């Protein structure tokens, strides 16, 4: 479902109005324009499908494009049966997806970029970024029946025709209102893990040139892993479109979402016969550390953050994403050759993130036996706390744990009971990460397209400008950690001081909290005001040669505000810390032996300002050898803005061949080289998580991308898509210092190969289809030091679509049928040189078998 749609082939023809720079909408043309329908599949060839993403010429089919473009229909999306937005990105060859977090907050990367590089992949809806910065867009978007198809372009023109899309642009294109007749659909979906979802879509004409559509979904789901909580919400979208008498259109649209979703991070694993496996008492394929004990925990925090001195962590709320968007799209044809366009959208949004991070900060060392936890000395992961406890309770004979839920106390001398705890005898440190972001994002894209034709020469020139004004306020204060056991729906434990009879004489913790302010004061704000000017020209010289080039200049005026730690002048309810600064005392009445809330926000900011500008440009060419065979080549020089941090540059070289033979064979092969310069990001210092360290490196990747569909007989087809690449790190520095031993390493969480095979059987008499899917992910490394290798794995899926009546369709699908263990990353907060301790480690893994289905009624 790539450049070739092996199962459902449709030609999308463009309306008379010229296209926007990002080619937002595949508008209908000629007789189909008024009906709002697509041409029948039988009348189209795969490579003749007209795409609108990544190019600016009308009616330009895939085979003549000079960019690496992917096209996936609504049927392709349904066949993938995505559990998240990230799942849909697997329809694009070369996108490595780490869809292990749940429905939102997943990671994805492209062409050798290290895992978690999603800010270089711009997600768009109808040709405009969901968020200016790229990363985080899946908090606010999920496919539904309002989406008609997916189009993507990797590198190339992506970095010119949109902002922050130098790696790739994934464009989700909406259905347009139906001007001819009433149209509607309802879909009910259920999954074995507890998802209950209802989608709906409705469109109808209101007058001769006025129509609307409206759709979305409501759902309730505990997430793909076991969870005592159920998360619910909705997303809706509507549009009102007026067609101008002389052609063109004005469309006003809006969308709103308010939805909660589950979140999953790292889990503890062990190696068994060289393969990752479950720890006894915890099924890594189904279980979830989070549960009732984490429902709501009051965490002490600076009074500058909350006057009460507390900020609650609520696992029962998961990730709550709220947003409102208003959008206006205008296309006005001035003449047959000249078209004006304008796109504007405004979104205000919030996400309130309550996520558990087992092993964060302490890493593997935090996974230890309960006996070691309670025995003072270097082997205890909480020895500093025990030392405080010995001073606070000098008469204590020993320490123990008290289950917060049941009140059961077990002393350190009860070794048999401790070793039998949940069948594994382990305790662990788990970080409570409450991260809230409030933002607004204004985007405007306006310009003109001028088409010129003289004899055998056809030229299309698009010029325009983009403006983005973005503000994001973050509150990640009160990040703290607790001690909990290793099992599904785990229990949290207070560490208590005991007398000789194991009677409690005092508690070292309150609600199991063993540390406060783990990740710094957590208060920051980022503002961007960005202006872009761009031009893209595409010229056809006769019927065979097409040359295009584009350029975009962007200037970003950025401001970064970082919360300042309390200064000596503001010492009310503060004590002098070891570093000479001040720390705020915990609220009066807070139990335990911890006296301060850790890093303290002073109510003031350190402000950095930076104005940067950069030029992105690209040039490409396509030669159509025959109507079914073409070759193309492209060079692109793109970039990523990073607020006040240095701009990252990305250079891409690629060449490819596309070929189609009747309906028997269709495909493409692309060779590429990608250079990412000054790839820069922060990570937590593994020995002091409140301190951020900086990594800066250049990445070099060369590879080959294959996308082929073979249909040997009418009722059977096989689709293969894959990337085989050799990514390497060069010039790596940590905190500005060159690091030995990293040169030539593989970037973290980047596979050298990933490929998918999808066979499909059409049932007789149009009854539907049966399909399978095998996805292979090659070995990856958990860290830039390549210290921990995560094994390759393959996942098998299958499904069936049955046309019960012309209007009623039943779809059933199953994912990871054979319960394969697959790890997408290690513990990202353990640093760049990870290790396996005593055979145990933390990682994020795919879920075990999931299955379900949907019933769709179209009317």
Automatic annotation (TrEMBL):
Domain spans labelled TonB-dependent receptor plug: 64-166
Superkingdom of origin: Bacteria
Protein name: TonB-dependent receptor
Record keyword Protein transport present: no
GO MF annotations, alphabetized: siderophore uptake transmembrane transporter activity
Subcellular location, record wording: Cell outer membrane
GO CC terms: cell outer membrane
Membrane topology type: Multi-pass membrane protein
PROSITE patterns to which the protein is assigned, alphabetical: TAT, TONB_DEPENDENT_REC_3
Major place of residence: membrane
Family: Belongs to the TonB-dependent receptor family.
Keywords of this entry: Cell outer membrane, Ion transport, Iron, Iron transport, Membrane, Receptor, Signal, TonB box, Transmembrane, Transmembrane beta strand, Transport
Organism: Sphingomonas adhaesiva
């Amino acid at each position: 479902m790539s450049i070739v749609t092996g199962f459902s082939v449709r030609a999308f023809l463009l309306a008379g109005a010229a296209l926007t720079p990002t080619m937002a909408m595949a508008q209908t043309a000629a007789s189909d324009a008024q009906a709002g329908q697509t041409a029948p599949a039988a009348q189209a060839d795969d490579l003749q499908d007209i795409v609108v993403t990544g190019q600016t010429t009308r009616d330009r089919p895939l085979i003549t494009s000079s960019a690496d473009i992917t096209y996936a229909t609504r049927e392709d999306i349904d066949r993938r049966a995505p559990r998240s937005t990230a799942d849909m990105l697997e329809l694009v060859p070369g996108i490595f997806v780490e869809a292990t977090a749940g429905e939102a907050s997943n990671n994805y990367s492209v062409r050798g970029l290290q895992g978690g590089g999603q800010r270089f992949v711009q997600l768009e809806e109808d040709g405009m970024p969901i968020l200016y910065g790229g990363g985080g867009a899946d908090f606010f978007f999920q496919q539904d029946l309002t989406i008609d198809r997916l189009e993507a372009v990797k590198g190339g023109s992506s970095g010119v025709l949109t902002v922050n899309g130098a790696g790739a642009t994934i464009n989700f294109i909406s259905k347009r209102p139906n001007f001819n007749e009433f149209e509607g659909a309802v879909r009910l979906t259920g999954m074995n893990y507890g998802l209950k979802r209802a989608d709906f879509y409705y469109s109808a004409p209101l007058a001769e040139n006025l129509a609307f559509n409206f759709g979305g979904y409501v759902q309730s789901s505990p997430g793909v892993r076991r969870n005592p909580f159920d998360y619910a919400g909705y997303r809706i979208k509507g549009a009102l479109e007026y067609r101008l008498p002389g052609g063109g259109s004005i469309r006003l649209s809006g969308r709103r979402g308010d939805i909660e979703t589950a979140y999953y991070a790292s889990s503890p694993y062990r190696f068994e016969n060289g393969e990752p496996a479950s720890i006894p008492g915890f099924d890594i394929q189904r279980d979830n550390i989070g549960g009732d004990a984490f429902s709501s925990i009051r965490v002490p925090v600076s009074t500058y953050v909350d006057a009460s001195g507390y900020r609650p962590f609520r696992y029962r709320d998961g990730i709550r994403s709220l947003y409102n968007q208003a959008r206006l799209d205008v296309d006005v044809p001035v003449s047959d050759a000249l078209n004006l366009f304008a796109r504007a959208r405004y979104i205000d949004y919030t996400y309130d993130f309550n996520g558990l991070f087992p092993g964060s900060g302490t890493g593997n060392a935090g996974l230890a036996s309960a006996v070691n936890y309670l025995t003072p000395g270097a082997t205890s992961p909480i020895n500093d706390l025990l030392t405080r406890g010995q001073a606070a309770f000098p008469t204590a004979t020993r320490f123990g744990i008290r289950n917060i839920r049941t009140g059961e106390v077990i002393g350190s001398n009860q070794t048999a009971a401790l070793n039998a705890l949940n069948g594994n005898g382990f305790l662990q440190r788990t970080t409570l990460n409450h991260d809230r972001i409030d933002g607004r994002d204004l985007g405007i894209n306006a310009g003109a397209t001028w088409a010129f034709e003289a004899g055998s020469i056809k030229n299309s020139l698009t010029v325009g400008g983009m403006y983005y004004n973005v503000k994001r306020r973050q509150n990640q204060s009160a990040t703290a950690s607790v001690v909990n056991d290793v099992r599904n729906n785990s229990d949290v434990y207070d560490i208590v001081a005991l007398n000789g009879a194991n009677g409690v004489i005092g508690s070292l913790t309150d609600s199991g909290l063993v540390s406060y302010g783990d990740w710094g004061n957590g208060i920051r704000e980022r503002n961007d005001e960005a202006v872009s000017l761009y031009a893209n020209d595409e010229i056809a010289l006769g019927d065979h040669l097409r040359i295009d080039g584009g350029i975009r200049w962007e200037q970003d005026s950025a401001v970064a505000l970082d919360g300042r730690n309390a200064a000596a002048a503001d010492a009310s309810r503060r004590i002098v810390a070891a570093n000479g600064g001040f720390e705020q005392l915990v609220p009066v009445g807070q139990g335990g032996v911890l006296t301060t809330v850790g890093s303290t926000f002073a109510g003031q900011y350190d402000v950095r300002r930076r104005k940067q500008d950069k030029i992105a440009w690209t040039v490409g060419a396509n030669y159509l050898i025959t109507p079914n065979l073409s070759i193309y080549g492209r060079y692109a020089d793109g970039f990523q803005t990073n607020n006040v941090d240095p701009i990252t540059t990305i250079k891409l070289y690629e060449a490819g061949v596309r070929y189609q033979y009747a309906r028997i064979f269709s495909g493409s092969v692309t060779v590429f080289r990608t250079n990412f310069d000054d790839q820069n990001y922060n990570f937590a210092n593994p020995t002091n998580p409140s301190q951020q360290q900086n990594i800066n490196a250049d990445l070099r990747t060369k590879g080959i991308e294959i996308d082929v569909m073979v249909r040997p007989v009418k009722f059977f087809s096989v689709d293969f898509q894959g990337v085989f690449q050799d990514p390497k790190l060069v010039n790596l520095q940590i905190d500005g210092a060159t690091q030995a031993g990293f040169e030539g390493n593989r970037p973290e969480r980047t596979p050298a190969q990933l490929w998918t095979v999808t066979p499909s059987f059409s049932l007789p008499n149009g009854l539907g289809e049966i399909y399978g899917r095998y996805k292979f992910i090659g070995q990856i490394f958990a860290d830039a030091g390549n210290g921990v290798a995560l094994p390759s794995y393959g996942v098998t899926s299958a499904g069936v679509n049955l046309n019960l009546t012309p209007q009623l369709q039943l779809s059933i699908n199953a994912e990871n049928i054979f319960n394969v263990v697959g790890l997408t990353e290690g513990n990202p907060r353990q640093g760049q040189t990870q290790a396996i301790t005593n055979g145990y480690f933390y990682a994020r893994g795919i879920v075990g078998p999931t299955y379900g289905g949907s019933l769709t009624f179209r009317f």
